[in-house]
Amino acid sequence: MTLLMRGPPGTGKTLLAKAAATESGANFIAVRGPEILSKWVGESEKAIRQIFRRARQVAPAIIFFDEIDAIAPARGFRHDTSGVTDRIVNQLLTEMDGIEPLTNVVVIAATNRPDILDPALLRPGRFDRLIYVPPPDKKARLEILRIHTRKMPLADDVDLEKIAEMTEGYTGADLEAVAREAAMIALREAFKKHGKPQAVEVHMEHFLKALKAIQPSLTPEDVRRYERIARELKRMVL
Ligand SMILES: Nc1ncnc2c1ncn2[C@@H]1O[C@H](COP(=O)(O)OP(=O)(O)OP(=O)(O)O)[C@@H](O)[C@H]1O
Ligand SMILES: [Mg+2]
């Protein structure tokens, strides 16, 4: 079973893969694309082979290629002229197409740049499933806000639903930053007032200030662009 997750930065792809690993109890082999390149200069395809060998040994296992675009960029986006990328992609495909079957090994890859990924990886049958991880809608934003404020002393006037409504274009990572910033602002204000650290409640006004300080990382245009890429990829694969 192989699946590719794509979607804008900060939407929870890495989080999802880790959660899947924890929930399943499988052995988790996480590989960050950029790391392979730096650690295995010139022999990254060997690294790929070893990763799959190890996964077969410790199966049931999940191999997670995070930021896979770094090791398998499309031709126009490559920095090497030595053919390393070609060899890596070929090795990946060989392992995934499985002359040696991938018994009890799940491959999950993630990218926020599906548009620069080697198209060979996107051809039908390459990944069993393509999953689009969209920017959070209002309901998802509310849930994310709830998660990241769970341990915060919230004042009664804090209206998370209102904040969720106001945060179109904010990713999960942005919302986490907003919650953290609101808490910081509350602490700072209390410190200024009392001259020493205080336990404080976080009020709605602190969130509103935090929203001014932390801008959404996605413009409406970004969101549309990601949706368009997602549609195109779907068409290529289905
Ligand atoms: N659905 C979510 N629920 C709760 N928190 C979230 C969610 N999505 C994102 N976050 C917050 O955003 C942070 C970044 O998420 P994550 O690293 O998984 O994003 P990503 O999609 O892998 O981004 P990138 O493409 O930049 O690698 C998480 O640590 C988490 O705090
Ligand atoms: Mg990530």
The CATH superfamily of the largest domain is identified as: P-loop containing nucleotide triphosphate hydrolases
Main sheet specs: 5 strands, parallel
Overall radius of gyration:
21 Å
> Stretches where pLDDT falls below 50 for ≥5 residues?
none
CATH topology annotation of the largest domain: Rossmann fold
Return the CATH class of the largest domain. Alpha Beta
Strand tally is: 5
Q: Briefly note the structural class of the backbone.
A: alpha/beta
In spatial order, strands of the major sheet run 2-3-4-1-5
Give the overall shape, derived from the CA principal axes.
elongated
The proportion of strand residues reads 5-15%
Mean pLDDT comes to 89
SS summary, helix count = 9
Order of helices and strands: EHEHHEHEEHHHHH
Kindly state the percentage of residues in helix: 40-55%
CATH architecture of the largest domain: 3-Layer(aba) Sandwich
